[in-house]
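INPUT
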Amino acid sequence: MRNEFLQVPATSLIAPAHRQKSPDSSQKTGKRVVVAQELGYCWGVRRALEIVEAAAESTGPIAPIGDVIHNPQVVERLRQRGVEGATSVAEAATRGFRRVAITAHGMGPHLAGEAASAGVELIDTTCPLVTKVQRLAQKLVRQGYFLVVYGDSYHPEVRSVIGWAGTSKAVAAKKIADLPWNAPRGANGEGISTPPRKVAVVSQTTKNVDELMVFAQKLQAMVMPEGGEFRLCNTICEPTSERQNALKRLVEQDQVDVILAIGGRKSSNTARLAEVGQALGVPSFHIERTEDIQDEWLADADIVGVTAGASTPDDVIEAVVAELASRGYRPPENGIRPIDAEYVPSY
Ligand code: SF4
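OUTPUT
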């Protein structure tokens, strides 16, 4: 079978952990699976799914606009419960939906107007941690900052933040070359473009803090000369930070030999987990389902670490753990992590 799940390349921005593997392999307790302490659905995605499922169950079909979640199994399950995505309000209305929903990633303010024009009800499941970034963007713009949203320009969350900023003085960027400036303030000459006096950065909630800091330091050096004012707002959400820290613990504490990052093929945060695992020095693979596991990945692996993207449901994670158990790996005694129904992240 063709291997579509390439081992991800190491990224230069994350310093590889200096793994201290035990020279005495007898210290290992045999073949086993270690599941990251934080993995799978994040708080905001879980909350959004609960809202749309409850709405569909009580009052009929509902169409989230855009990808409700990057996981084909969940998309199918939701479809059977009357929750079916549409690419636009107009398309949802044409297909007969009387209600549409904003996903956890959020949408710009235009969507409410489109829903009103189409005569459909709008349900907002935007994660409150994304709403916080949208409001902060508005505030920074009011305070006169040019807004830089550190993130993927195509991502709905980034587009929603720029939409709420409501200004042409806002841009999405993941690297300095994405910015409309190419030189520090005070520089001049042909083809030179310099930043305005006030620049603020917010981050897409799912980004990596180390990479954000590298980006911000470079931008700060462009803005600060000649009385420039630079502000960095770390808006990476707490669930994302915890997930990234849990992945590091798999490598540094549990000393796993290989990492399986479970999530839909289109899930960028799952791909990112595999990238980080790889950069930390452990062969890491992005898989969508159990069938994707390649025998050769496990050939020399005693301890298999499992993590999962923010849109991966627990049953898919459990299926992967069960598959590993069938291959002779001892599963975690207490299953995958418990869900704390009372948990609310700080924001
Ligand atoms: Fe909310 Fe963070 Fe999940 Fe995004 S990743 S939906 S901000 S909890």
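end of record. Residues 43-126 form a domain with the Rossmann fold fold (CATH 3.40.50.11270).
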